[in-house]
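Entry 14. Ran structure prediction on the chain below.
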Amino acid sequence: MAHQVSKDDNVTIPDSDPDTNTSVARFDEALEQLALARQSDLAAPNTEVLEAALDVMAAPDGLDALYARVPAMEAKGVFTNGDWGQPAILRPALAVRTLRQGAPDFTAIEALSELRLLAVAMGDYRHPGISAEQARNFLTQVTALNLDLLSGQMSEADRERPQGLGEIVNSLYQFLLNRLGYESILDSLVDEVRRLLAQRPIQTDSIKQMVSQIAKCLFDPEIDTTGMHKAARLVSALFGPTKGCRDDPGFAVYGERLAAMDEIALSEEAKGFASAMHETGMVSPYHPMLLRHLRDNRDDLIPMALGLSITGNDVLQCYRQIVLQLIDEVVHPETSQAVYGLAMFLERGALFTPPVAAGLWRQLELKLCQAASDRLSVVFGDAHPPRVYLLAGVLSLLGQPLGVGQGNNPTCQSVIGLSMWSFNDADFLLQLVAWAARDDDVLMRFEGQHVNSQNLQAGLAKVPPTDVDPVSLILAPHLDRIYGEMGRLCGVRDDDLHRWINPEMYGWWVGHGFLSVISRETGKIHEYEDFIRHFYASYHPYYNGNIPIIHPQPAGIAVTDSGGRLVGRHAITILRVNLDRDGEMRVYFFNPNNDSGQNWGQGINCSTESNGERHGEASLPFAEFASRLCVFHYDTRELGDVTVVPETDVTCATELGRTSWAASYE
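Output, structure tokens:
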């Protein structure tokens, strides 16, 4: 439970300006009125509190006064009835826009929310929905995206905001920075950027914004950044990875330099770009310029510029025409990340599957419907035709099946589908993209019945997502509606509906065996030990006959916070089970929630890069993963002997579950 407070928790700032005390008193009164109103109307607006909060923020020491009132604000409902009521789902990039560009009320509640997260991060307030580590990570990213305020100087846009909002935001940033500490922020910012990049997300715009702000700090003579070698490497990878662009000369100058380079210089440029790209997962906007220059002059250097291995080069040479066509159509500074997608797509060898090449040729010629074109233009702009952004997104998804994320949307079921199809059924994915982009619908079958997405009611996502990659933007709403319709077609059945939906939705490879630890009839945990034994006998190599996972398998987990408390149920895919370097058996899985490095409490920390994970994977020791599992599919013909599963492992998993999320279902 959140900390409950009384009026005694609210303090008057000593020796402060009389105007400050007046503003604080007005805020306290508005807070009390909101609490009273909420007793009879849970939807009572918090407008008066937000207006009073802005007055306090503008007063001397006002932020200190509001910081002291964080528990009271939470207890009296300032943050309920909106996204701010669930701090774990807030997105730093959206928070920055709200803070810097939002209307007064939205700026006010975002500022109050960040004061709340600061209190959580500093250990002054405990919130049931977000841990101190998560709060610090969030504030690290927010401060990174606001590093242009570091010197205290405001832009014209900030200065011209109504009601002194520019000054208020600037003061808030300095307040956060003074308490978090600048040096720790820059260090942790660099670590946070590197941690996120290690997961190789398809969407990197917000990460690149953070690197841009780091660059401004590194080149500010007023800031001591001695020894920041990791920061310098990130900045150079994005803005100057090669000799030809090390000074970030701009596109026009770099184009002139390319035209004057000889073969040796071009080779060095190609190697430099490829090295930086594969080291970080970021693509410099100068990289597409080199590829387009090589395409016209020295296309024999393209494999080097993409950093291809023998495998990737073999694919390129076998399918040279389509690869070169893709470079011509897709590779631009505005779509630079598609270069990494293309390189990894070639490395995966998926083009050796004949339907994939044919599907890409169709995609190159595809005429988009107006609805798809409009959505792409609104989100990604009009520097290039909408079809170019969609093609770029297709390449990124085909090259990075584990880099797709659901954004701030309840679409995990759809996103794990995109990942699985990209991973092992790419031609089907291309078919779905063609239907959605050209025809504005998607066709599937459920138990012999055709399901068309076009006229279906919304699924879990009531509003189409916009904070996602181009393929998800076009395809996820259709998939979300179809998944919901399949659930409706199931009607009332004697088991969890995912048992029937998943094989029909995702493909033949989904195991026909299915177990849920939550009884459909009672809604309670049932036969927990037997559930765990079956999972071990299905997936653990020591007990399933050493059979590896052939295809990714959808599963349902109970996500918990850092205190082990249930947050909600979530769809993931199980990818593989292997020993790590220390000889511990781990489950490697794909989590579509944008950042897989999570703390689930009880010492259960999802690892993303230190225990043998491939880019985009998360992993946990087998028993710890099993403790959060609530449904899984398996092959009934390949089930091992459940009687040989050690009782110590079963007890470990069930006790971790029962003392955390499962307590809600007992």
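Confidence is low (pLDDT under 50) at residues 1-15. Will compare against last week's run tomorrow.
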